[in-house]
Amino acid sequence: MVWSAETVEGLAPDGASVTAARKLARPGPWSEVGFDERAVWGLCKGSGSRPYQAQVDLSGPAFKCSCPSRKFPCKHALALLLLWVGGDAAAGPEPPWVAEWLASREERVERAASRPAPGEPPRDPEAAARRALEREARVAAGVEDLQRWLRDAVRGGLGAGRLRAWDEWDAFAARLVDAQAPGAASRLRSLGGVAAGRPDGWPERLLSGLGLLHLLCEAFARADGPVREDVRALLGWNVGREEVLAGPRVSDRWVVLARVVIEQERLRVQRTWLWGLSTGRPALLLDFAPPGAPLEPRPAPGMAFEAALAFHPSATPLRALLDSPGEVSGAPGTFGSGGAGEALRSVASAVALNPWLEEWPVVLASAVIDGREGGAWTAAAEDGALPLGGSSASRWRLLAMSGGRPVSLFGLWDGAALTPLAAGDGVRTVAL
Asked: For an engineered disulfide with 424, which of 39, 142, 333, 339 has Cβ 3.0 to 4.6 Å away?
C-alpha cells in the first residue's frame, strides 16, 4: 500500500474522527513514536495517568489502542499514522508490547490456515442432511401461513384497523422467526412500521411491499436456477463462507470506491464497494461486528488491488468474498465506460432478474454535476441526466470536487434518484 495523508483519512470511520486525528497529529502529546517494516507505534497522553498505547500493523492494516473509544480505528491510531506519513516517527526496534501483539496476530493467521479446506464435508453428513430437511419443512409451513395472512390482509383492505396495530405484524413476524425464515420476518416488521405510522405515500408503499412478499412466497415453491438462491437468501438462508470460496472466482484489478459503516443497535455493518476495471462490474464486501468490536480491515477508498473475488450465488451476483488482496496501489482517477442510458439499462436488467432489489450500483464514466441550495441536483452525461439524491453534504462535496468539470461517478440507484458514493476527477478517486 502507498501511504499518504489521504490514505490514512480514508480509513476513518467518520468525518469527526478525521478532524480529531488531525488535531492530535503533532508531536506534543506523543512519545516513543517509532516504526519498522511491519508496524507503527506510539504513546499518546490522554486524560488518565497512563498514556494510551496505539499501534498499527501495516500489513492489514490492523489497529489496536488502549483507549476506551468504540470507534475503529480510533483517533489515536489515525493520528499516529498521520505522524508517520508526515515524517515524525523514528525507525527502530519494536517495543515488547508491540511485538507481543504482532505475534498474537500471526498465531491467529496460522490457526485460520489450519482450518478445514473449503468444501470439506461435515463430520456427520447424515445429521446435517436431516437438519436441512427439517428446516425446509418448517420454512415451507411458515411461507404457506404467510401467504394466507397476506391474502386476508389485502382482502380486508389496507385501511383496516387490524393493520394499524403493530402487535398484529409483530406477532406474525415472530411466527416466521420460529419457522426459521427471519428474512421474511424482517420485511414484515418493516411493513408493519409503514402501516402503523402511515407516512406520506403509505398506501403505495404498503401495497408494493405486500405484493413483493407474496411474490417471494410464490417463488419459494416455483423458482429454480440462480434466482432460487436469491429467494432463499431473502427468507434467511445463509451460504457458508467455505462454500462461496469453493466456487468460481472473478479476477480483476479492483478499485475501492467507497466504504460505509452502519451502526445498528446490535451490529456494526461495513459495506465496501469495489469496481472491476477490466470486467466493468461492481462488487460488495460485507463485514459484520458487534458494537465496539473491530471490523475487518479493508484497503482504503481510492486504492486498487489485484484479486480473484468469489461471488455469492445469485441471479444478480454482487456480494463477494475477498480471500486475500494482492499488492495495493493508488487507483486511477477514472472508471466506468457508459452514460445514463447504460446505467439505467443495467438497473432494468438486474431488477428483471431479481425483482426484490431495492437499489443497484451504477457508474457514469463522465458526468457534469449541477445543483444549488434548495433546488434540484443532477448528474448529466452525454446521453441524459440522472437526478441526484443522498445527503446534502455528499452532494456539495461532489460539486466542489468536480469544479464544474466532468467526473466519473459511482452511486446507488433506487428507482428515483442516484445516491453518490464516489467520484474520480481524472487524477484521484475519492469517496463521498
From this structure: 333
The grid coordinates of residue 323 equal: 480471500
pLDDT, one tens digit per residue, over 112-121 is 555 554 455 5
Domain range for residue 144?
131-235
The reply to whether 201 and 263 lie within a common domain is no
CA distance 93 to 173: 57
Place of cell 420485511: 187
Q: Enumerate helices (H) and strands (E) in the chain, giving the number of each.
A: 13, 17
Enumerate residues 6+ apart whose C-beta is below 8 A from 400.
Answer: none
b vs e for 404-428, b when ≥16 Cβ sit within 10 Å of the residue's Cβ?
eebbbbbbbbeeebbbbbbbbbeee
Q: Is residue 122 part of a domain?
A: no
Task: Work out how many domains the chain is built from and give that number.
Answer: 4
CA dihedral 378, 382, 384, 385 (to 10 degrees): -10
Q: Is the pTM of this model over 0.70?
A: yes
Q: Read off φ and ψ for residue 42, nearest 5 degrees.
A: 180, 165
Band of pLDDT at residue 151, cut at 50, 70 and 90: very high
